[in-house]
Design brief:
By secondary structure, the chain is α+β, with helices and mostly antiparallel strands. It has one domain: STM4215-like (2-Layer Sandwich), CATH 3.30.2000.30. It is elongated. It starts with a helix and ends in a 12-residue tail after the last strand.
Length: 149
């Protein structure tokens, strides 16, 4: 079954995050599905910007921000506890910025640290905005116009 290029890109990002040596499991879900004490990555789509200017009449440029939420249980020094996961995610995402010639670029755009739950320990989250850029067919977003595949 055909999938949009951006759905395939999210799948490739998850595979990179779950590569051998990963400090946590990466899920494709909303944050409610992750246990309160679990250290995890959680990737979910936010919105997709379709740009019709500056491209051929048969294509559209896609700029998709994905949220990669990192969950860590910590009582203090939360930035130090989350840092190895941020570092892993950054390196894995940039290991192949075209995701095997699936997209024109994938990169980190923004990082925010916040709290999910304040209790005996603090469930913190780090939201990383991962941007996916690609050009797709205007009539069929499963056709990649960036690499003509």
């Amino acid at each position: 079954m055909a999938q949009t290029i951006w759905t395939r890109a999210a799948t490739a990002i998850l595979a990179a995050l779950n590569a051998e040596g990963s400090p946590a499991t990466a899920y494709r879900t909303r944050f409610e599905a992750v246990e309160a004490s679990e250290t995890a990555f959680n990737l979910f789509a936010t919105d997709i910007d379709c740009k019709y200017d500056d491209c051929a009449n048969d294509s559209v440029k896609i700029d998709q921000p994905l949220t990669l939420r990192i969950y860590v249980d910590a009582t203090n020094e939360v930035d130090l506890v989350a840092d190895p996961l941020v570092l892993w995610a950054w390196k894995q995402i940039r290991l192949d910025p075209t995701l095997g010639q699936l997209v024109s670029d994938v990169y980190i755009d923004n990082i925010k640290i916040g709290y999910m739950d304040k209790s005996a320990s603090d469930q913190i989250c780090v939201d990383i905005t991962v941007r996916v850029e690609v050009e797709v067919d205007r009539n069929d977003p499963s056709i990649n116009k960036t690499y003509l595949s």
